[in-house]
Amino acid sequence: MNVKPLNAEAAARLRRELAAIDLQLEVELAAIRLASIESRLEQFDAMQRQRRRAAQSAGQTAAAEHDRAMRQARLAQGLGIALFGGAAALFAAAPRQHSMGLRDLD
């Protein structure tokens, strides 16, 4: 194999071609990195949207449970008032009958 030494002009041309190839590889590598970063950002955004939806759903669920508990409390309060009123009316009526019965026995 016979190898001829390069003259200065040929060596300069090869260096320019290698520099152009290096530059092209750097650009392609930067594009790959950028695509990877964009993909990760899209994944992050998707996760954030999912977290926001889950938090909103949890908030709506908690609000619905709170509303339901408040309705049950108002219902229980209303029933308690009604039962207390009914018991008070019975109690108010009972002592008169009982006291009349006791006076008659005395």
Helix and strand topology:
Elements: H1 8-105
Task: Describe the fold and architecture.
The chain is mostly helical and 106 residues long. It has one domain (8-82). 92% of the residues lie in helices and 0% in strands. It is built from one helix and no strands. It has one helix at 8-105. The longest helix is centred in the middle third of the chain and has 98 residues, at 8-105. The chain is rod-shaped and about 130 Å long. The termini are far apart. The mean pLDDT is 81.
Fill in the keyword field for this structure.
mainly alpha, 92% helix
Write a concise synopsis of the structure shown.
By secondary structure, the protein is mainly α. It has one helix at residues 8-105. 92% of the residues lie in helices and 0% in strands.
